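User: I'll paste a sequence; please echo it back and then give the predicted structure.

Assistant: Echoing your sequence first, then the prediction.
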Amino acid sequence: MTDDDPVATLIGRARRAQTEYATWTQERVDATVAAAGWAIIEPERNRRLAEQAVRDSGMGAVEDKVSKNHRKTLGLLRDLQGVRTVGVIADDRTRGITEIARPVGVVAALTPSTNPAATPANKLINALKGGNAIILAPSPKGASTCALLLDFVHGELLKVGAPVDLVQQLPPPGSRAMLARLMGQADLVVATGSRNNVKAAYESGKPAFGVGAGNVAAIVLPAADPAATAARIAKSKTFDHATSCSSENSLIVVEAAWERLLVALRSEGGVLATPAEKASLGKALFPDGRLSPRLIARPATEIARLAGLVRAAYQGCRFILVSEEGVGPQFPFSGEKLSPVLTVYRVPDFDAAIAQVQRLYDYQGKGHSVGVHGASAAQQLRLGLELPVCRVIVDQEHCYAVGGSFTNGLPFSLSMGCGTWGGNSFSDNLNYRHFLNITRIVRPIPERMPSQEDIFGDYWRLFGK
């Protein structure tokens, strides 16, 4: 390692800043968090970030990114308000345990081009709440937006007297070697984005949180209100032109709900492709069997035009529906599409719907989440007990609900753990607790040793000694 190594320089600055920051009171830390939040929420800056993100990445919609930057950050700040992350955070006299929050140190954060402002903001705010420094490693297409965000953040940090080196960015264009050095020298790695990035994080030799692949399916049952369900699905699927890994990729529609739902989806701007149109769309969307980068997160009308879909219905369509039966690499529409293209499967009943989702997730998306519309409490529970998912989203706009919403109790986040099903070490939404070490003071308490009868009594009575 040479003295002029840019990664070593970043790490050195981050450590010096974090060493000072780790001595701050909760009140000063909370002011720093608020400063970082205002850096992105302030309306003029928010719009500049959204416009630059769409211009430089070629993905998404400006107004939706403005909304996402605002909602995700405001929701996160709500989650963090009043939460203690400095000093003693819990004191259980009965158990004799006092918990003390401690920073993890320097965080290396890999962020995607699909959300080049909202995701870095979410991670840096969580990191700052825990008393940490953070170095962002954005994707190449998101680097310029991330740099602009950091300019805004640094300006706000100066207002509260916080070291600007608490939040830094790997200088573009970067390289895999630089990224590897960054992860290797950081104390914690958090990775959102491509599977390669997540794999690299896990192989860095440092503790790492990575996310699983998205390929969300939503089940629609006969009890679902077709108009309300179609409106939710359309809103979720078209938001930011489906940049989110939490947007529905497949609908599993029970037979008795099929006709009414299709009518409702058409009324929301959906167009069902004919078999010939499906073939043309497949060639455009999956050239050489892989998702085309030029069609990711583009408007449905543009995708239709590039695919040669000339029917008048496509001129004003919001999303394209594709009927499918198979699952797997030979059926590319069964995978994640990151575009306003929605695959629909028709099944006879709820049991068949569960089986279809299982097949989809065995191919792609295991661990993430499943949506359901019109399910009873018993059916909702079955999904949670039987499917390999960390979240069951009931009667909601899926891409809004999964990452936290003002109408559900999940933490606001843009990084969703998928558990061991998705190859991840965590199964909840990435939140401030993942950016903390907890030290426990353990004191003696009155002995609570059970007798053998307490432990084995029921067993003995059933099976003997």
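The chain has two domains: 6-210+431-441, 217-403. DSSP finds 16 helices and 15 strands in the chain.
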